[in-house]
Specification:
Shape: elongated
Helix content: over 70%
Radius of gyration: 17 Å
Strand content: under 5%
Distance between the termini: 56 Å
Number of strands: 0
């Protein structure tokens, strides 16, 4: 446990951002899962568009690695094209 005021504040902020990042990452994984579970081509395309937006934003903010973002987007596109 920190004794210095700035270290205490840093600890609070780290906890706050940790919770925020965890929520965003969870939201991202859920969006990806919905696309992969979709069986209708039109619905999958709409879900993919939303998921790609979230993935790009997460990669820009370094929530996920940019290469991983590209790989996941490619995988989603391949899945959606296989449906239609």
């Amino acid at each position: 446990m920190p004794n210095i005021k700035s270290a205490k504040k840093r600890m609070r902020l780290n906890d706050k951002w940790n919770q925020r990042n965890r929520a965003k990452r969870s939201q991202l994984r859920t969006a990806i899962k919905h696309v992969l579970q979709s069986t209708d081509a039109e619905e999958a395309e709409a879900l993919k568009r939303q998921a790609v937006t979230l993935i790009d934003r997460a990669a820009t903010r370094r929530l996920v690695h940019p290469n991983r973002a590209a790989r996941v987007k490619s995988r989603l596109a391949r899945h959606v094209s296989s449906l239609g």
